[in-house]
Amino acid sequence: MTESWTSDRRPSLAGRLARLGFTHAARAERLIAEAERDGSAPGDGLLDALGGTADPDLALDGLLRLLPAAGGDLRAALVTEPGTRERLTAVLGVSAALGDHLARHPDHWRVLRDGVAGPLGSPRAGLLAAVGADPSAEEPVARDEDALLALRVAYRRRLLALAGRDLIGLADVAEVAAELADLAAAALEAGLAIARAEVPGHEACRLAVIGMGKCGGRELNYVSDVDVVFVAEAREGRDEDAALRTATRLASAMMRACSATTEEGALWEVDAALRPEGKAGPLVRTLASHRAYYERWAKTWEFQALLKARPVAGDADLGARYLETITPIVWKAAEGESFVEDVQDMRRRVETDLNQRTADSERQLKLGPGGLRDVEFAVQLLQLVHGRADTTLRSPTTLDALADLSRGGYVARDDAAALASAYRFLRRVEHLVQLHRLRRTHLVPDDEAGLRRLGRALGLRTDPVGEFTALWRRHAREVRRIHEKLFYRPLLRAVARLPGEEARLTPEAARARLEALGYADPGGALRHIEALTAGVSRRAAIQRTLLPVMLGWFADAPDPDAGLLGFRQVSDALGTTPWYLRLLRDEVTVAERMAWVLGSSRYATDLLLRAPEAVALLGSDTGLAPRPFEALRAEALAAVRRHNEAPAGPAAQEKRASGSPAEEAAGVVRAQRRRELFRVAVADLLGLVDVRTVGEALTGISTVTVEAALQAAINKIEMESRGPLPTRMAIVAMGRFGGHELGYGSDADVMFVHDPLPGADERAAGRAAHAVAEELRRLLALPAPDPPLVIDPNLRPEGRQGPLVRTLASYAAYYARWSEPWEAQALLRADPMIGDPGLCERFRALIDPVRWPEDGIGEDAVRQIRRLKARMESERLPRGVERRLHTKLGPGGLADVEWVAQLLQLRYAHEVPALRTTRTLDALDAAVDARLLDAEDSEVLSEAWCMATRIRGALMLVRGRASDLLPTDHRRERSAVARVLDYPGTGDLLEDYRRHARRARAVVDRVFYGAE
After folding, report:
1. Contact 480/488 with Cβ under 8 angstroms?
2. Is the pTM value of this prediction over 0.85?
3. DSSP summary character for residue 315
């Protein structure tokens, strides 16, 4: 030993310890002083070595426990053998758990000695010998009574030797992971030897253990579950069922031998959940049973798991036959009919996992953004897609597979190098984190000491915490970026003449990748990509930057082909506009939202194609919020005034050759409507608005459009008649329009009312009012790029047989003499809100007593309404339609809920002012407040109404045309509606709708029909 610390030198000790990197210098000084009493205090050279470790305080603690027990050989070796000193102090400075192991087994330090450190011979032979089994036997059987303890001690001795080489850089991450997998395989073999000693009659069967996951891929962590699958067969002349029972007992005993907790701890969990049928399936199967399952029932993710299958223990011949049988099935299955959907589901599942983070997600090395799973999933996905035809891509090891993908031109060299570097870094950090306590964890520490230990272990000494955090975040960002890009970039090389030395994908390989992404027409997609990226212009260059990521976003949408086609069309329309591509390049949110909208909604895509500049709305949630009604109204009416006041003369007339001022004004207003419909549709698709907000927003847009068209029509009629209109006009919104519950495909149900000015000729006033109404309908029906707004006046008195426009007095006379109960019910949703304000109020005063009669409606009227509802249910549904899937007229649908609310209004609104509303949900809330309806019943009805409304909206958004029927026969359309409504599958949507409708119908039968 070198000179120890004497009392006259001690005043400088604490300062020196601090300079060497000890965090608790005073404590370390005290421990060294105590060690002096038995002569085990470290000298200068050893103290310097401790100061060079990841955690000098931890290393000192471990060393001071080991030195008294290990004797003089260790003391001498630490002085004369620099390699021994470096390995031992490195281990003690990282792993408290291995320090504990050395304290229990002090002679194990010798595996770290110069000339000894390195692979300790065959791990299989070593661990079998440790449990008293003969390594040369065909089926080794453990003979040691303390085999479980012996296995753990021998295992950790080898783990200690490997950690010593790992921590000083004598073995890289790939070597360490491979050796850990081989050590785990040896432990499984020893565990099986222990199991044979426990299971009588084990000779009746052959049992092979197939390593899966990281064990199978020879890329295991220090502490990880070891995934396995068991395959067995009876020996010749033995009963197969009995042999399988024996094999199952062997497998269970082997798992316990590795997982059981002892005074030496456990090794790790043995997990057999990747077997056919998972935990619900038998633990052990025959080879024929495995083959039958994978040929008939397995999902693509199960074949993905089989990419890493490798026999690791047990009967080697049976394991080899398993691999020979299963491997061809894996690659044949990748050509299956459902391959595209399954790959998409896998990709979506991983993305969902990444998005549903826990509180610790940002510290996750495995599942966090830019983590190990990102690398592994991208590599495996590429293997599944291209390994079908290219057998060089079938390595079970991530880093080897990544190198193969790079050599084959499937991944750019720079990307492969960056990804491999990041993967090695993340795996090394994962190893260091697990070594500390020998516990299964993938979390980066959140305490200063833990981060400091990690940074110093990685050689970062100036600012270990800051440097490590920056390096980790940089690698994570790079992984995430390349993960986004990796699957799509080679598609561009397949169709565009890009610079670079990398091999380009063949057209066939590019098609295969597009198919795997879910593109139904890969050839068409390639043509779109080529058109967007061809040439050397700046526009093409930006597209080549955008498309790798956008192709993935399109693939996330229900209809990738439509998304890419729409993107090409919008890009063609705006490609020469300087702001468009710059916006997409610089604002990730805009590009991602655009991809989702184009790939999800034909309705929104059509709107965007007709007004491509609306893409600028996608940049923020604020920009997608529905605009206030008064702002929309002011803009629309200002446009009408502007065109009505345009200058006259030959030049102006020539400029207007294509249309009258009214038509021009209507065109501007309809363009405003188109823009606002797009705003609401996108907000709806992104989940930024709820059902009520959508209904109010769409109603406001239609109200403004109709009011502006009314003013334009009045202006035109006044110009043609060369005088002011001789009557006041108002428009009464009816149905969903009046209820402020319009959908994307709703007509605008209206009634026209006019009131001649004092002294005006009533017939002339009637003709003028009729002309205005017809002109309004004509202006809104002119061919235009916006979706039609159909003005439907058929809810007026006498329906189509009655006059289009009536005077206020005529309405009063009709409702006084001829009105039926159903007409009073229709008036419940009447809202006179467009046109002359005074006339609107007088019309409201006229109809209020009709729809909210004093003392309510009588029992005869109630029976009549019930009969009418029952007749509608049997007569109005189209033939051949599955009534339970009809969101409007089916049981528990919109009509059911609305008739309940309306019957309560007809009966009780005269005494409950809050019931005097045109809005369905408000009426239900008012009924609850007035104790006319149970709160639970109201909640059931409201939820069913909202769900049916959402489904109708989603159908219109997806299809571009209205429908009341849930799709059942068009797979892509059905799936798209489910995705837009945020359901994992169409079955989930159908089940949820039926549940809501069934519960709502039960309330309708009880509350509306009076059923017990």
Report:
1. no
2. no
3. -
